[in-house]
Amino acid sequence: MCKEQMKNLYLPYEARIEDIKVETEDGNLKTFHIVLEKEEDQKNWSHVPGQFAMLSISGKGEIPIGIASSPTEKGFLLFTVNRAGVVTTALHKMNVGEPIGVRGPLGNGFPVDGELKGKNIVIIAGGFAFTTLRATLIYLLEHRNDYGKITVIYGARTPGMLLYKDELKSWQERDDLECHITVDREAPGWDGLVGFVPTIAGQVKPSPENSAALICGPPIMIKFTMPPLEEIGWKDDQVYLSLENRMKCGVGICGHCNVGPVYVCKDGPVFKRSEVQKLPVEF
Amino acid sequence: MKPLALFKSELDVFLKELSRDFDIFGPKRQKKGFLDWGKIEGLSDLDLSPGVTKTSVKSFFLPQPEVLFEFSAKTGDERAFRLKEPECPDRKRVLLGVRPCDARSIFLNSMPYKEDCYFQGNIERNIVIGLFCKTHLSTCFCTWVGGSPTSTDGMDIGVYELEDSFIFLPVSQRGEELLRGLGLREISQEEEGQLEAYKSDAPEGISEGIDIAKEFSKKSLFDLYDAQFWQEVTDPCLNCGTCTFLCPTCYCFDIQDEVLRGRGRRIRYWDSCMFPLFTLHASGHNPRGEKVKRVRNRFMHKLKYFPDRFGPISCVGCGRCVRDCPVSIDIRQVIRQFLEI
Fold this sequence. Notes:
Strand order of the largest sheet of chain B: 3-2-5-6-7-8-1-9
Structural class of chain B: alpha/beta
Number of strands of chain B: 11
Number of helices of chain B: 12
Strand order of the largest sheet of chain A: 10-9-8-7-11-12-15
Structural class of chain A: alpha/beta
Strand content of chain A: 25-35%
Number of strands of chain A: 15
Number of helices of chain A: 8
Largest interface: A-B, 45 and 54 residues
CATH superfamily of the largest domain in chain A: Nucleotide-binding domain of ferredoxin-NADP reductase (FNR) module
Strand content of chain B: 15-25%
Distance between the termini of chain B: 46 Å
Oligomer: heterodimer
Order of helices and strands of chain A: EEHEEEHEEHEHEEHEHEEEHEH
Shape of chain B: globular
Radius of gyration of chain A: 19 Å
Distance between the termini of chain A: 33 Å
């Protein structure tokens, strides 16, 4: 039973799939272009890059997915989803025009209007963890004068596994942004960088001076990216990570996503590396 | 408002009076012999023997399951798959004979559930008439963890059981309002004397002057997390989850969708951090894949993570986990080991 005068934390906004784009050559990653149905909800919606939302498919359930669109992109939301479980499989089978629910925005996001302002920003991403960093990058570029130098290091296994390929091209052509796109191995038709993200980060050597690094990727990538950064003077409190854990409620109650005393869904998903090191390794 | 009194011989009339406006639930002797919550239709249903019911009072606040939303799953239905909140039942409940430990769990669970409209709705719907304890069972340890046999936390009304009468102590505003309408009498001088002498046989605490919530908050997270004793505590554990389901302050839940014959509902129901599925990622990675991590998480949550966030320890000392653990894991032993760190 529900208490009437309280906001229902579990009620998703009604929304509709406007467009679907297959991102990767294996077809396992699709970007869903989602529009909230009610004008009022569209107006009230505001998020910070790095936040996530619960996508809700009635009869299947809910999944926490990072918001891939920037708050500066008005009128729609982007979610890039890997097909991996019950709900994501159902979502991958859905068509344009079908109804869906969106519950959020949830979590904290990157401090783009706080600590990151005025700093050089280094974005380091691997595989399909690039999604909320895409949102962040679009936001930074929209407010270009608020930040110093922007560097992007992004890698995937193969050229066909890179996300947002058209945008990557346009970012590489900009002169107010340094964009290093890499793939793990040589591939036919690929004339860009070859090498793992940590190796490329070691070669790029982004200066730690007045800088912050936002790193998203598989744990193994993060583990090997840190030493080359530390070697050139990066400190743990300059590095922002986005954690993932199994979630149900998304609002810090249900208990699934705790890492020691913190809830990834409510206290995170974005944490400074210095904060993460004060936590048990339960993510 | 002063406490009011009722002769035990009048309890029948009292229940009848109460049942006009409320559904009454309380401890009831089950066919298998143990006490558990049941609907109280008359005096013979109510059993106020010492000790706690088999299951905790949490079923009334976190129903098993709680329907969060309903939806039509009929193709062609214009509103198909659009979520709708379920109708609120209009009849309120009175929970009778809630022991101070169970009542305190309502107060503790309200902290993480502060903004949860379903939980708060259930708080509004269930009036708690507590029953203070005189008898201390071998598994009781409320005084270790911030409770007491006469604690009123989580109660609307607290009741002392005297020789021939019950004394009703109003605790909350709505408890007061309810009491006013029930035609109870003032306390006699003799009862006042008995009340004065009312004393439980419960010990003062784990040992004199020790507030374990305070003690644990002083300890470093990693000293406790990395302690040697976890493997020893874990070894016998079967990960059956009995402790989490019986525990009044184990409040974790899962959310699932169900569809049956064109009707769907999104429900939440109790989940347990003892189960490997609780934390399993879709990728196959499991941050608490090993049993020791799960056992540690449950105790750390109750004794360290929860108090660090909210203040009190998330255990009420009801002793249900001690009583029904198939391998006799005893949280009191873990508390002692925490104190030694």
